[in-house]
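Aggregate trends can hide what the representation actually does to any particular protein. The sequence in question and its structure tokens are set out directly beneath this paragraph.
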Amino acid sequence: MRGPRARAVLLGIAVLCLGVTASAQTPSADARQINILEHLGNSHHLELPYWKPPYTYPVELPRFTPIQVGGVTLDFSITRHLVFMMLAAVIVVLVFLYTSRAVVRAHAAGQPPRGFAGAMEAMVLYIRQEVILPNVGPHGEGYVNYLLTVFFFLLACNLFGLVPWGATATSNIAVTGAMALLSLVVIEISGMRALGFKGYMQTIFYLPPGLPVALRPALLIIMTPIEIIGKLAKPFALAVRLFANMTAGHVVLLALIGLTFFFQSYLVGIAASLLATGVMVLELFVAFLHAFIFTLLTSVFIGLMRAAH
């Protein structure tokens, strides 16, 4: 991957392929259309493996009666993304329970943990020692558990999108937005605890020392909205970056696979399969990368807030 420009080019190719498919008006072309958005978006059913074409069996999820709160309608029905989020959370819990017990047994026997437990311990130590603690700053042990949970939960959600019949919950802006909002709460609370009420308020109503009294009202009017926007821009960047990258990769992958069915050519099918395999390898890297970036930036933002920057 060569940066956002390369991904934008790939996304443009995918959108072009979608446009070509949608613009075809002949009956044969209509029969070859593939609804990519159906595979990317959220829904109220799961797709389970099935032995007959199209090799999926839809299972409807429970639907609940929406709740009216004033003029807002709240629907708490179970969706596909929610199912895979819960599954990711359960897997993370089970993996860490197994790893912690395996590490304790290995250390009690005077030996280093091996196999899967050893790999998990190495990954946890790397994230803790090289990512979280150096960026959070002194006495940052209290943030390690939360940030490790964020990393492995997002990683599990990202990887589920690469599993057949799976779904990527992090391609839903509501999911990434909720994770970013939670990070915003942790960032701001960390600033309150480290700086105190007076010090924290100075991160919103900023007045440099030595400023003449006559200039203070004007500076407050100018700088206070900028400081507030700066606080909100951090979680916004976290949410949009994760959502856009996970969505773009899957659009490119599905568009390449769709070329096989659109052109109905063995040559195109072989070329598209090779390209799709390369994109899948790239997507595997991206799944790890953006879980890492989300954790890294959250750690950096916590450290900056604690240092009153």
